[in-house]
């Protein structure tokens, strides 16, 4: 099984488990079953996210990343490709569902793809960045991420200068290989 396919399946297992639990309240009644992102602070959500991450690590997913909360959605959470099997992820997810059931469903919803207009702005930004000293800078993918062979380039002075010169085309967050840099 390819790494990308395994990552996709692991994400589906995690999101499906959390989505099902959120939809039915995890079999629990009371305040936890009715929580929404609007009724919970970011700190409360991140406390649950950290508890969930620790539970996943305690149940065999040693390299599970807690992730961060960006624009009301959990990003960069999960296990690195190839670090666990689908069975290990499923077992840990089931063991930790008492925590994931408390997370608002909207926090776990996938980010919608960028509009065609935004993708066009990002493509013009890419062209500009290439013209300002980074000839290998890629166009955005359909999710608005820039697939970089060396993600550290965004910390370079050369990129900072190119980004400043090209902000007229696009001045939003930069997703790199699926993650974000604001």
What structural class results from the helix and strand content?
mainly alpha
Oligomer: single chain
Terminal CA distance: 34 Å
Radius of gyration, in Å, reads 19 Å
Query: Which term fits the overall shape?
Result: elongated
The low-pLDDT segments are 1-34
Share of helical residues = 40-55%
User: What's the total number of strands?
Assistant: 5
Order of helices and strands: HHEEHHHHEHEE
Spatial order of the strands forming the largest sheet:
3-4-5
Mean pLDDT: 78
Largest β-sheet summary = 3 strands, mixed
Name the beta content range: 5-15%
Count of discrete structural domains: 2
Number of H/I helices: 7
Structural notes for this entry:
- Mean pLDDT is 78; it is low at 1-34.
- This protein starts with a helix and ends with a strand.
- The protein is built from 7 helices and 5 strands.
- Helix content is 46%, strand content 8%.
- The chain has helices spanning 3-24, 42-58, 86-95, 97-100, 105-108, 116-131, 157-166; strands spanning 68-70, 73-75, 145-146, 174-176, 179-181.
- It folds into 2 domains: 3-108, no CATH class; 116-181, no CATH class.
């Amino acid at each position: 099984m390819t790494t990308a396919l395994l990552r996709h399946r692991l994400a589906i297992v995690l999101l499906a488990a959390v989505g099902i639990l959120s939809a039915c309240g995890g079999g629990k009644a009371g305040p936890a079953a009715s929580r929404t992102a609007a009724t919970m602070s970011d700190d409360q959500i991140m406390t649950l996210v950290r508890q969930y991450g620790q539970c996943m690590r305690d149940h065999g997913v040693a390299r599970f990343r807690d992730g961060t909360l960006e624009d009301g959605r959990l990003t960069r959470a999960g296990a690195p490709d190839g670090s666990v099997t689908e069975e290990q992820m499923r077992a840990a997810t089931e063991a930790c569902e008492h925590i994931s059931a408390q997370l608002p469903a909207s926090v776990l919803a996938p980010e919608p793809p960028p509009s065609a207009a935004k993708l066009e702005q990002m493509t013009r930004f890419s062209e500009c960045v290439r013209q300002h000293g980074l000839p290998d800078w890629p166009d955005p993918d359909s999710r608005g991420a820039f697939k970089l062979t060396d993600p550290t380039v965004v910390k370079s002075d050369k990129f900072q200068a190119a980004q400043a010169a090209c902000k007229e085309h696009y001045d939003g967050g930069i997703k790199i290989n699926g993650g974000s840099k604001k």
